[in-house]
Write a structure and sequence with these properties.
Layout: E1 13-16, E2 31-34, E3 39-44, H1 50-53, E4 63-68, E5 73-77, E6 99-103, H2 106-114, E7 122-127, E8 132-137, E9 141-146, H3 149-160
Antiparallel strand pairs: 1-6, 2-3, 3-4, 4-9, 5-8, 6-7, 7-8
Length: 161
């Protein structure tokens, strides 16, 4: 029997996404706002990305919001940075504190076999200190980078309506 992330026909390949900020290693927890087919993930961004996505005020705690449309599957939970090696994609290069896409994804193929295959074809993984976010969606869009979690939260709720 084939596991969720393994397939004898193909090999999952993990690629970094440069168009969204890296998650912060030592900041607040990420959060999800979701409707039936739209998921927005908001998380604190790494200080190394402040210049690229800023400018920010010194008292800001920058958060970004990333929209995943036509989502068929999403989850936020273990493993985190301390035990990322147990993730099925760890051997394929899954990195800590990074936004990534899985190419040649066996999970996408498995979901396509039991749902509408034209809806979602891409697997995204974003890793955090205490958790990992995964989703199968048609695309992703960085909808904004904000000075605080409260602003990111308000924008995320507005986008799922």
């Amino acid at each position: 029997m084939t596991s969720v992330h393994e397939s004898p026909q193909q090999e999952d390949q993990v690629l970094l996404l440069d168009s969204v900020p890296h998650p912060a290693a030592d900041a607040a927890e990420p959060f999800i706002v979701a409707s039936d087919r739209r998921v927005i993930l908001a998380y604190p961004i790494a200080e190394s990305d402040f210049e690229r996505f800023g400018p920010f005020d010194p008292d800001d705690d920058p958060f970004c919001a990333v929209l995943f449309p036509d989502t068929q599957f999403h989850r936020l939970g273990p493993p985190g940075d301390g035990d990322l090696e147990i993730h099925p994609l760890a051997s394929q290069g899954l990195a800590a504190f990074a936004a990534q896409e899985v190419i040649n994804c066996s999970l996408v193929d498995e979901l396509a076999a039991v749902s509408l295959p034209e809806l979602a074809k891409r697997h995204f993984v974003i890793t955090f200190l205490e958790s990992t976010f995964e989703c199968i969606a048609s695309d992703y869009t960085l909808v904004g980078v904000y000075g605080a979690a409260e602003i990111a939260s308000r924008e995320a709720f507005a986008l799922v309506r």
